[in-house]
Write a structure and sequence with these properties.
Layout lengths: L1 H43 L9 H10 L11 H11 L4 H24 L8 H4 L2 H12 L15 H17 L9 H18 L1 H17 L5 H22 L3 H18 L5 H4 L9 H23 L2 H22 L18 H16 L8 H18 L6 H5 L3 H17 L8 H20 L13 E5 L4 E5 L1 H16 L7 E4 L5 H7 L2 E2 L12 H9 L4 H6 L1 E4 L23 E8 L12 E7 L2 H14 L1
Parallel strand pairs: 3-4, 3-5
Antiparallel strand pairs: 1-2, 5-7, 6-7
Helix pairs in contact: 1-6, 1-14, 1-19, 2-3, 2-21, 4-6, 4-7, 4-18, 7-8, 7-16, 8-9, 8-10, 9-16, 10-11, 11-22, 13-14, 13-15, 13-19, 14-19, 15-18, 16-18
Amino acid sequence: MNKHKMPLKLNSSRQSFLRGAFGDSFGLMVCAAASIAIAGRLIYFANHGYDFTDEGFYLNLISNPYPYNWSVTEFGYVYHPLFKLFGGSISWLRRANVVVNLGLAWGLTFAVLGGGRSSTPTISNESNWRVAIAAAGIATCVLTFFHTWLLTPNYNSLALQAILITAIGLALHQRATVRAPLLEGLLIGLGGGIAFLAKPTTALALAVAVVLYLIITSRLTLGRLASAFCGALFVVLTAALTIDGSIAAFVERLRVGFYFANLLSDSYSFAKIFRLDTFHLTRQEKIAFVLLTILVVIATLGSLLKTRRSELLAMSVSSTFVSIIAATTLGGLSGGFGETSYLPLLFFAPVLAALVLVFVRRCRGSAPLPTRSDWALALLLVMLPHVFSVGSNRNYWEHGGAAALFWLLAGVVVLAPVVQVSGGWGRAVPMILSVQALTSVILRQAEDHPYRHPGPIAAADHVIEMGATGSRLFLAPSYAAYVESSRAAARSVGLMPGVPVIDLTGQSPGLIFALGAVSIGQAWMIGDYPGSTKLASAALARMRCDDLAAAWLLIEPNGPRSLPDGLVTTFGARASEGYAEVASWFTPAGAGGYAEPRLQILKRPLDISATREACYRLRQRR
């Protein structure tokens, strides 16, 4: 009798094993397909849409960072070689930004998944390809950085990339197969140096967070500290010598930049930079948060238990997530949340689910608890979105949502011990699919409600050549007509690519770039701040008299952000007699975030030599 029962038990065990192995592999293949679909759609539509304010500022600096001898961020110099490499193509510059973010996020996630517990690393128990696919699925969360549809590289993307590099260096110690303090230190220093070039405030906050983490985990060794310092020093010195030719000139650049930032607004004071903000979720977002948490707990727990019924439940919930991904990336399903600022905070749902799963499995006595090192890493990751946000004048929770990947990875670190004793990351497929579903919803939300854009990205169907390089983008019909009419009018009166323009509209850096002109004074002569006029005057005072005298004017009478025409008198020009009105046009609805069209006027300088001489005389007196 026993002889007959034993083969039955073996067959049942084999069937369970084969079912689990096949199910895990199939689930990971679905995750891989979802990753490709989500990233592919974003890359495909990267040549759609354009913002005339922030994005114009980014492109003015990236395409030509050299006219300005002051700055607090050097992202223009960092991304300029990439701009040249792609022949000035905005769409390929955007795609490169997406790929770099995704690649670094995958590297960090792979390091975290590869060693949630240093004593029992996943890599030794699970094949690299399975971990790599799981990491790719979770890493798609980094694409929520583009939740406003600002795909062009900027100081925020550079700050995110810097923190990702630093976090990779910090996470490497979690893998027992990798013990390289010098490599870890170099990555930490490299990331810190790049963070300084992006946002010095973020670099300072990152340095404090990293030191605290290393102290808590007893990893603050002399070798690691020295290599980190050398890595950061190499980045900063290289940048200083490349940008200004000397350390002294670079320091002066930063000094003036910080002075100008405080001149613009007191929101950049120390007390207002290091602050705590609050957030508010809508009723719909709260319901989505609770529902998502419950579904992730049920489905992931079902997958971890490995019974037939639990696996069927996990498969059912996972199918729902797959349907959402398919509907948002391949179908016509919209985000459905309307215009909202805090949607990325829903990534705390998988984090909460991870904590619940650890508690449940621990109560059953079937999983070890995270180590002190794991908790320290999780705490650091939770802090990093705020580190990323330090220095922003936006709400830190809203701004930190662009770095929601770090919140998510905190939950992954905590959940790792449970996953490792349950068969590997293939068992976490339901959670991975939930992350991808939420990412796809947020990106579709971005498509439907892009920042300062008139309507959905899908409606941007007019091909327009932008800038001096003629980069082709798909714009909304009204935006396309605006660029075409203003460019035709400007060309007809002699404004050619490379001609300097002083933008006194306070909000049209994107038009200056589209015309192929050079914005004089600032890459964005920004208006509507308490110190906008003072900053504009101070910035113009640092420009060459030759450029100021030859500069055309773009004005917007009675515009909501307009700067006074009298600013030209600060360098010796005459506000009314020194310029002739030669062209005009109206802005489209939505440009700059304003619904009402506004008149813009282009003025040409009448006597360049007289203005140049007056500028020289004024500066000699000073």
